[in-house]
Amino acid sequence: MGYRENPRPGGRSARVQAAVHQSVRDMLATMDRADVTIPLIAQRANVTPSTIYRRWGDLQALLADVAASHLRPEGEPASIGSAREDLAAWVEQYADEMASGLGRQMLRDVLAAADSANAEKCGTYMRCQLSVFIARAEACGEPFPTLTELMDHVISPIIYRILFDQAPDSDYVRGLVTKVMPESTART
Amino acid sequence: MGYRENPRPGGRSARVQAAVHQSVRDMLATMDRADVTIPLIAQRANVTPSTIYRRWGDLQALLADVAASHLRPEGEPASIGSAREDLAAWVEQYADEMASGLGRQMLRDVLAAADSANAEKCGTYMRCQLSVFIARAEACGEPFPTLTELMDHVISPIIYRILFDQAPDSDYVRGLVTKVMPESTART
DNA sequence: TCCACTAACGCAAATTATTTGCTTTTATAC
DNA sequence: GTATAAAAGCAAATAATTTGCGTTAGTGGA
Question: Three-class SS of residue B182?
């Protein structure tokens, strides 16, 4: 009677989910958000509206689901130089992506849903990614901030500005990373 | 043909706005958010649904408007002791309020709206309030963080946690304030 | 004071979205 | 294979949203 969180891959349920997600992504990329409705999404995905209503509940929940799955990291962040440099590059790209129109909308969709599960998922994704840098630094004996320091003093200010203020620029983001580094490993 | 942002006080338009806002606040306080609909709000406010649709557009916009107006500071923060102590007390209360179910919902409502105007308003309110503490400290010659430091290292982490993680507790909030103070004015 | 003007409201019909009961399909386990 | 149950389809019923048009109530000028 209930819908499973993660449908078995290859099954009908998984195909429907993929089709609906794809349909949503296409529509968000090409049309005005106000025109994205469940009946339209259903039509594009070759699915009945009631299927979507029963599975996701409402448009906000569906958009939050799509946004969260897009926000899930696809792989390990690149390892080019020191952990500090890798982190700086990764954070800068992340900030750019989130500050863009689409990124901003994804953040909003994730937050707008009645259920906070998707928002918490995003927080978890973020901590996982940052942990990779911390582990690398530790492996090299490179001094590095803690996870809490990174979340509080780098990620939080970036997200806050995107949500409540103007998008942060690159200089600002680099400054945050520099300031959080221990023992003034600073450069630039 | 357009609706004015700030209706003249005492006019019919202002009365309708007040009635609708009141109706929304009552409903949010007493019933499940999923049951709060525009037709219901209209009925309680003795107004036609079409009036609300024409004026606000949709439910999200109306909720964002109500939330933002509730988030507007009502007066200067209390001045009991040093600027540092006043700030700590004020921030702690702010964090508590935002972390509560209703506070959290207000943040979400403000962010969920298609128009980011209300979210930016909230950012502005916050900077105004913090500026008061900064001005007081300066008047007393008390060393104090800058506005940017307060926004980035105190407010942002609190809001981020509320939105994407678990609600921050008092100890954590006090720690943020302590850490941002210059020259280790720290105590407890 | 009265009149013209217009923003904002009310009403109701038309449209569109959402819910729901019931049936059918399709993976999965036996 | 067959039984089972989750999930999809279909269609009728309900609820929300949009819209055209007439009415009301503040505003400003004679």
Answer: helix
| Residue A112 to residue B163, Cβ atoms within 8 A | no
Please classify residue A164 by burial: count the beta carbons closer than 10 Å to its beta carbon, then call 0-12 exposed, 13-18 middle and 19+ buried. buried
Residue B133: inside a domain, yes or no?
Answer: yes
Residue B185 confidence (pLDDT) above 60: no
pLDDT in tens, A69-104: 999 999 999 999 999 999 999 999 999 999 999 999
Structure tokens at B140: 């007393």
Residue-level pLDDT at A184: 54
Q: Are B33 and A114 inside 8 Å of each other by CB?
A: yes
The separation between the first and the last C-alpha atoms of chain B, rounded to the nearest angstrom, is 58
Contact residues on chain A for B33, CB-CB shorter than 8 A: 114
Residue B22, domain CATH: 1.10.10.60
Are A139 and A62 a contacting pair, CB within 8 Å? Answer: no
| Domains: count for chain A | 2
For residue B156, give the CATH number of its domain.
Answer: 1.10.357.10
Of B33, B114, B163, the CB nearest to A34: B114
Contacts of A85 (CB under 8 A, 6+ apart): none
Domain that holds residue A104: 71-184
Q: Please name the nucleotide lying closest to A45, CA to C1'.
A: D8
Residues of B in contact with A160 (CB under 8 A): 151-152, 155-156, 159-160
Residue A4 is assigned to a structural domain of this protein: no
> pLDDT-based confidence at A188, cuts 50/70/90?
very low
Domain-located, residue B63: no
Which among A107, A122, A160 is the nearest to B159, CB-wise? A160
Residue from A118, A96, A100 nearest A109 by CA: A118
